[in-house]
Amino acid sequence: MDVTIKSVKHSLRKRYIRLAPILFFLYVINFLDRVNLSYAIAANMFPDIGVPASSADFIAGVASSLFFVAYAIPQVFTTLRINSMGIRKIFAFAFSAWGIITIVTGFVQNVPEIYALRFILGLAEAPFYAGTMFFMGIWFVKEERGVANSFFNAAIPVAGIFGGLISGAIFTAYGNNPGWRYLFIYEGILALISVAILWVVLTDFPEDAKWLTKDEKDALERELKNEEENKPIKVSWKEALKQRDVILLTIVYFLGVTGLYGYTIWLPSIIKSMANISAATASFLSDIPYVVAAIALILILRFSDKKGNRKHLTAIIFFVAFAGLALSAFLLVSSPVASFIFFTISAIGIFSFLPIFWNIPQEALTRESSASSIGMINGLGNLGGIVGPILVGGLQSYTHSFVAGVYSMAVFVLLAGIVVLMVRHSR
């Protein structure tokens, strides 16, 4: 066993260099295409296509949420398909589809068109995140997975940084309209370019890797098999979906994602409302929470892999998000600067929970059951992406303020922190 461990460690550098950067890059592209609507909303996209100003935020929330209605549909079965077919074919199709859809979004003329495109985009993007979580579970052993997850999930704040810079630059160059149209077109083209990159660089399964020696592949296979045999939950994929922890983790993810997408979709608009600034300025300022979240994520993940209890650390992260959001909402009207500071602090919790959280099902479930369970957790949990944008946008339309919406996000992340403490099988 000592020889096996030594050989696995020897191949670690190869696996990180080969897989981590491309997965990071793909997630940046994925997240840009998912949340570019948030910058378009701040640039008055919906009034531009004929939506009355009084209902624009609610309609925008519905448009954002339709993505997640479709996103949940194929989750379990696409992840199981990746287990049998491999990642390259499914990802190549997905990136091609959502690249084309994103480009077409730049030409929309009315609300039904944007509704239809957001729904189809959700179907196209469905395999990516859960598929990557499963993919890393078959390429990295438990001791390596935290770092791999952290590097991958760091793409969210990094994508936010790039998204703010790209949209700010486009709005500065072209104005709000046609700036928001060019935003979709340029970012859709990036997704299409990614197809060729992922096809060349990714390898479906360790046994297919020509860049690993036979000894390295055999050692990795033995270590993963040993890990499978010692996992606390050993059931078929159908039974795994009924497990108490899987259900609780789905609830936690739903609550966390509600806060996450309520935050990301409305971030530029909330910042814009604080000081009546332009969409371009709001886009640039949106980078500040993402930069803070990226720095915090690195520190939190280093602690998690060395000493952290996954479950308790995830709960603490949610409680930090709750405190930041609650204080931001309280100060939003009376002190916009202080409100922005606490809103930025809340980003630490909003974005940092993902990599810590995903270690829990990866470490507790066997390969077959993890494929289906991760698909279910990701698919049903991402229904929070329906609730968050509609809730924040609807409350803004009703109250003409984002205060109630920010408070609502605070409640959801508080509940997520409480529920995750009920999970039994976790490091």
Automatic annotation (TrEMBL):
This chain's source organism reads Acidiplasma aeolicum
**SUPFAM superfamilies according to UniProt:** MFS general substrate transporter
Show the stretches that span the lipid bilayer. Answer: 21-46, 58-78, 90-109, 115-139, 151-174, 180-202, 246-267, 279-301, 313-333, 339-358, 379-398, 404-423
**What's a Pfam family this protein contains?**
MFS_1
The main location is membrane
Listed under GO cellular component are: membrane
Name of the protein described by the UniProt record: MFS transporter
The Major facilitator superfamily (MFS) profile domain, residue ranges: 22-427
Record keywords: Membrane, Transmembrane, Transmembrane helix, Transport
Q: How does it sit in the membrane?
A: Multi-pass membrane protein
**From the UniProt record, which GO molecular function terms apply?**
transmembrane transporter activity
Q: Which cellular compartments is it found in?
A: Membrane
